[in-house]
User: Fold this.
Amino acid sequence: MERRNFFKLLSMAWAAVVLLPGRLLAKTEKAAAPASSGASGTGKLPEYAKEMRDSDMYGLGPDGKPTGQKATFTGASKANATAEKAMRHKMKLTKQEQAVLDGKDGEEKAKLMKILVAFGNTFGAEKLVDLGGAPHSNMFIGAEYMKSMIKMLDECAKAGLKSYAPYTVNPRPYDVYNVQNNPKDMTMIYEGYKLQRDLDYVHVRLGAPDLNYRTCACYLDEIGNAPEPGTYVAWAESSAVNYGNSVLGIRTNRNGAGMDLIQAMLGKAPKFGLMTDEGRKAKWLVEVKTSKEPDWGAIGTAIGRKCVEDVPYVTGLDKYFKGGKVTADNMHLLKAMGSATASSGAVGLYHVEGVTPDAKKMGKKLLAKGYETYVIDDKEQARIISTFKNLWPKKDADPTACFIGCPHNTYYEVVKWGKMVTEALKKAGKKKAAIPVYMFMPNKVRDRAIEEHGELVSKMKRAGMHATNMCSVSYAGMKGFSERVRGVTNSAKTRNYSTIRYFPDEILVKIIVTGKIPKGA
Amino acid sequence: MAKKTFRGRPMLAGKIEGKALVSKQPFNLTGSYLKNMFAGETESAPCTDSANKELYEKDLKGAIICTPQTVGSTMGAGTIMMLSELGVGPQAFLFSSHIDSISAGGLIIDDVWNGRRVITIDLLGDEFLEAVKTGDPITIHEDGTVEVG
Assistant:
């Protein structure tokens, strides 16, 4: 709670900041070739880059073939849009917004407004709305192909523009302290992410706090970016958008890198899709009828594949949330399910009957006219899990590392995994895990664990469990990863984007202790 | 071949003539330009998306890309801006479906901030993609009309 106040206090202070007058844009520099790899002309693709397409929203199924899924990636389908209607649409602007567009606050801000208005018109927004809470950005890749985007943001920072409130940012794509502190990984990192420093510096000037707050799970108490229900925000990062819309009840579309910060600098967003009552209606009724507690990652994957970017209304899950409450010790269940819906499809919002705020308020009235029904029972869950193929190049080899926490671990998960693994090791008469266990979390969560469970954290460290604040998916998406690392994970999202194999928690503990995949697992 | 006319939404309007390069499957924005992104390729834009049988290894520089929508990383907006900066981007995108938010963001930002326009027409309809073939002559008009043939 203290840290939520930190965000609120900073927001108030920043509201008083007078933006500097706009400056003339620097003349466009002549295009320069990326310096990476030293190649030119028909340069050979560096090894590390060959699989970069597998890192994120790549349109390929688990078999490596295109899924053919079509989506706007806003979290709101536009399947029925027509050209005639779309081209006539124009948002109405307030006088103040029009003045900004006309240059009242400088040339840079006028351009940002022009971009936002065009973007809003493209997606049929009715108007611009004022943003509250705090933004969350997914601009986290300091690779050279992001140079032009980073340059634009740098020009904004130089013009004195800033986010309307301090904002959170996705984790960095690497960690040379705790995981990738070997020469080969460090070479790939320093070749592949040459602009990371420039990007971090841009974030500092636009209003992000220090790197200890970096995480994809910005809504954790230790970070404090959890706006009140109904607040309009402009978040990016599919899992954060998905959790925020669904569990917090905030209103944001799924924004791409760049658009998130443009909206943050203007303090406004075009209202369409998931920000509207109509766009939050469910086109799918998903009935979970498993005989035991479901595999949250598996059912999330099932929902994402079925609904793509339409909103599901999910029943049969309220029994796992006592009193219909999402608490520190059960929020990870929705984090796991939701992030899987957002990565196997492009779901930006889901309703859980009796649990999430919209569903509590409106119940089945959230179902849109003509909704479809999808039942997930034991058989369907098993079918989905059977599609999780073994993608290791050497299929029958032993695992070499375990990945826990994508999206980033909650404090509860860190303590739970710490106890599960160290106790299992003790029972097996071992002091160290058979394979390294990477525990992904923001530094703020790590610090809390040290403060409140120092002895356990020491045991975890000695057992080979490493806390890291980087992005699991970025790491697993690096070239050469699958040849060097045979990973196992509890994250359906990580599985969806990499060659890492997915297992239930109890199997993972056995793997961590023995270094072997149990027969039949 | 008989000329066929389609009407879409001129998201970023412009007039141009050229030849179609068709991808019936959604075009992977980041996966298609890996050589430009990572190998210092600045003369051409060889498609690096091996999952796209229609376009793999074809030169995408200056192309009029006809496809349903784009897919790819949420960093895709940055890719679009980089391609323009290198001068190897497409001349036009012709989408049969509604444009997605990632490419829309990149295309609009680059158009407004840098004054670099890739003509973009969306909502041309499934019939457009059924009719057009790679190599077909294409004429794009300011009002979003696209002539094939």
Remarks:
- Chain B touches chain A through 66 residues (CB under 8 Å).
- Residues 4-148 of chain B form a domain with the Glucose Oxidase; domain 1 fold (CATH 3.50.30.10).
- Chain B is about 25% helix and 25% strand.
- Chain B has a mean pLDDT of 92.
